[in-house]
Amino acid sequence: MKAVLLIGNFSGSLRPLTLSQPLPLLRFCNRSLIFHQLQALKDAGISQVVICHPNKEVPADWTAAIEQLSGELGLKLVCSQETEPAGTAGALKHAEALVTDDGTNDAPFIVVNADVLCSYPLRDLLLAHLKRGREGTLLTTRSEEPSEYGVVVVDERTGGITHFVDRPETFVSDRINCGVYVFSPAIFERIRASSRVSMNELLPAMAKAEQLNSMLLSGYWVKLTSTRSYMGAVASHLEIARYLAPASLAESTADFTVTGNVMVHPSATIGKGCVVGPAVVIGPNCRVAEGVRLESCTLLEGAAVASHAIIRESVLGLGSSIGRWCFVNGSVLGEAVEVCEALLLNGATVLPQKQLERNIRSPEIVI
After folding, report:
1. pTM listed for this prediction
2. What is the pLDDT of residues 297-320, one digit of tens each?
3. Residue 8 · residue 112 · CB < 8 Å
4. CB 341 within 8 A of CB 289
5. Each residue of 77-117: pLDDT tens digit?
6. Which of 10, 220, 287, 297 is most buried per CB count within 10 Å?
7. What backbone phi and psi angles, to 5 degrees, belong to 173?
8. Within a 10 A sphere around the Cβ of 362, how many other Cβ atoms?
9. Domains of the chain in sequence order
10. What is the rounded CA–CA span in Å between residue 232 and residue 279?
11. Among 78, 81, 3, 14, CA closest to 39
């Protein structure tokens, strides 16, 4: 079986983190985002993944990264580059020959948006698709704020999708599109070649033709639209790891205390008297000095925190450093940001390569 991974763009909306790394290669719980998606596809029995992405702003290390992931996961990875923006459905059409082996493969295939993370019940989604026999099956989830995404209206008796409503002003449904699908190759006939076509055009047409089913997700789901959504996804992912991969989580030692779910890379160092957790990820080659308090935060590769600092609900970018006695709350630092000693950062968003020598008491973007 095959799958398609749709990358709309490489920068995404997680700036300033994606100013240094493309979104698919951004570290999430000490693995790249794309690794988590590819691993889920492999676990579902997928042997080949077609990665659709624009040919503009392709990262210099993209090819090497894809080759490394292919070898590590044992997946065949093939890139389909769009010469012109084609929309999400148009990108699928552009990859038709790769997905169908030039028309000789009529097996259904999985499609995953690259800016989405969830518990990926892909085998169940595939079984639901095969059982109902329509052209497409869409994974949905319930949202407390469905008007932010647009909603999916489902016939609860059959699971069939009747229609979509974009950002309703009154309650219509609380189910939204997860950006994860199973399609049969017949959908390619619905997509115009050499034109820009989005899923927002394709899916309503399929629903109108009674060719679109749904399956409700029972696990977590997040669309990576902001650094806040990134941090929320970390907590959910670590909670799942507690049950499915407890060995990947850290435990308290004689030197430091772990509370809740914490992931620490083997190359990272943590000083005496530190209290770490909950919902903390410490990346490769990070250095945490003595007496530090870390809570609900991620330290990306090479980040350093000096003694007696407090970091809460924040992301420290590649190679960034925090001085002694600092208090960092609700902030996101880009690559190689240096925060001097004894400063307060509250709601700061700092672009790469900056040195901070003053307090930031209220939300501010430092350019």
Report:
1. 0.89
2. 999 999 999 999 999 999 999 999
3. no
4. no
5. 998 887 777 788 888 888 888 888 866 668 899 999 988 88
6. 297
7. -165, 155
8. 7
9. 2-225 (3.90.550.10), 249-365 (2.160.10.10)
10. 9
11. 3
